[in-house]
Each structure stands twice: as C-alpha cells, then as structure tokens.
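This follows on from our talk about sequence and fold. I would like you to pick a protein and set down its sequence and fold. Go ahead and set the record down below:
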Amino acid sequence: MIVEIGSTIVMGGIAGFAYLKSNGPAVNDGEKIQRIFANSGWTVREDGKIQTVRIRRKQKFEGGTEYVLQLPLGMSSKEIIDNQNVLADGLNVRTKVPFEMKDLLKLKWNKSLLKQLRELTNKKQDQKEIDISFDGMLRIKVYHSSLPEVIEWREDMLSKGAWRVPIGQSRERLVYHDFDKSKHLIVSSATGYGKSVAVKMMVANLIEQNPDYAEMNLIDLKGGASFHRFKDCKQTKRIARDPQEAYSVLKEVQKEMDATFKDIVDRGYEDIREAKEKRRRFIVIDEAADLADNSKAMDIVTDIARKGRSAGYYLIFSTQYPTAEVIPSQTKRNIIARLSYVVDTATASTVILDEGGAEKLPDIPGRGIYKNLRSTTVQTPFMSNEKIKERIKPYIRIRGKDEGSEQNRYEGAANRKHSIVIEKV
C-alpha cells in the first residue's frame, strides 16, 4: 500500500511536470531582459553587427535578483531608465509556469488531475517590480513581489529632537527627509493619491518630535480642511484659509525671517545651525495653485525658499496642479528635495521631479517618488486623522490661558464634566 501511494505521488509529479512544461517555454528573467532589449530596439550597430546588452553577472538578494549589464558603446542608459516600465511589463508576462514541488505533492491522482493541473497553470503570480541605476554598468534589480500597498505609521518612525520626517518605505530602508540638511520640500500628486495625508503626517511628526522649538505657519487653501486639527496647537503661530489671509501670513513671515537672518549675520554666523539656535519655523502650504495668480505672494514664497534655509524658515510647498506657473523656476531652483505621487502626465512629472516617472506609478495612494539628488520609489506611511488627533492632543491649548502653562492643555477630567474654557473677549 505504501509503495502504491508513493508511486502514485511520483507519477503524479512527473505527469504534472510534463504537462506544465509542455504548456509554456521556461524562460528566466535574464533571458527575458535580453529579449526585451532586442525587441524594443535598444541596440546599436557596431562593425556591421547589431549589438545589445550583455549580462556580466547576477546575484540574489533578499526578495529578488540583481542583473549587472554592460551597455555597448553608443547606447544611452537614460533612455532605458526613462522607459523602465517596458522592462517591468515584459518581466511580468508569464512564460514560465509558477509551481513548486510542494504543489505537485498536493495533487490527487484521480479523474480531476487535469483540472488540478490547469489550476496550477493559472496560479496567480506576485507582480514583479524593478529598479534601474547606472554607475558605468547598468544595474537592474528585479523584486519578486511588489511594495506593500499600505504601510501604517508607527511610533518608532519618530525621531525625537530631530528635524526629519518619514517619507516612505523603499525596498531597502525607511527613507527620511531631514529639513536641517535639505531645508525645503515640494510635494505633489493628483487628487486622492496622498499629498495632503503625507503633509499632515509631517506636521504632526515635527510637532511631537520638537514640541518646544517647532513653530508652524499653516496655509490651507482648501478652506482649512487639512489643517484645522492643528489650529489650537501651541506650535501653530499663524493659520490662513484663503489667498488674502495667506498673503498676510506670508508678509509677516517674510518680515520675521529678514529680522532673524540679519540677527544671525550680525552675530557673525553663517546660518541658524552654526548659531546653535534651536527653533525652526515651518511654512506649510497646501494647494499652492490658489496662490499662483498673486504675484506678490509667490515672490515671497520664492524669497523664503532662497533665504529661509539660513534663517531656519523651512518651506513645505504642496499642490495637485504641478505647472510652471504654480511652481516657478526660481522656487524650484532653491528646493532640491521633491516628493511626487501619481500625476496624470509626463509633463507634470517633469515639472516636479525634472524627470518622468511619476505618471507611471501604480494606482496606489501613498506610492511616490522621492527625489533628493537621486530618485527613490517609496510607500509613504499612512497616519489617520484619528492617530494625528491622539498624538497632538498634549499640545492643544485652552483658548485664553497662558500659552506656557501646563494647565493650558486638554488634560482635565476624563469626562470633561468639571472643565472650563476661558475666552478672551
């Protein structure tokens, strides 16, 4: 009986292997890459012969394989990097049936064998993703599964005492933006893909990491919907909800910034870090497109981007309409760091990142490209409004109380029965 069962399993495995093998040629990723290059016309003619890439070596890493290729003279790595979706699509065309020995051992040797084999053939594969870089050799990293579509914000993402915020999880690490190093940040996306959610998360993190030294100037040109939860934080100095209020806030900030910058220089320092000043002032604009028609306001934004870095005035400039009018070239030149989620055109991607790619991102909220000299694909941590409310609760002021008092926080009776709010009339 044991011999009979064993023989049945072996025969089933052999039959399964033969069936699957005959229903599609086995092509590995290395062979696919070379075929894609040839079929896409990524070739050059040399000495009368057509030359394409050669795979010099490959090496496995956790979660994927890296292929190192040598490009023939005259072939541009930029064209390949800009069209890496062609490689990704080709690698995801199934030419090899996905099965393992454990799948074959589960087969039942009965009349339903062919049906079981068909189900194995149609077994869903994880979507492969790629990353391409060039350092003299073309490096193609093939990941055997995609980044998670949702990454929840965690407390260990906080950097107490620092001025950096989590931008997103890449393949290798959690990527941060450090305002003391890169100063300002442009954020953009099409509607519903994570721009405002990301900016709120950044504001909440900055408040919690440096509650005594963070100062927020919040300009929310969507009627206050994004930033209303921060309006009573002791770190919020100014808040604006329409273009006219925004212009007034920007004028006040510019006046303060000029005075701070003059004071630093007069004391013989180059910038706020050399002066060992602890306070940092953030100007956060959500939906900057509504300021585009106000040239005076945009001139102040550009001035903050230019001089704010030395005075400790850092700009987070976000919009869902990335055009040359909304993001002036003078502003862009002073903001190296960019974060783009899905946009609708290659032109929009170029306005934000100075390169294409954001228009080819998958249809996943929070999936973006962070560019700070180099570009990295990330999945930004999701921080819900409920979580934001919970984290900033200790920093909410009771209106009319002394701002510096510990009793100035919503930390009274749990049921609020004996709490009072004193308002100055």
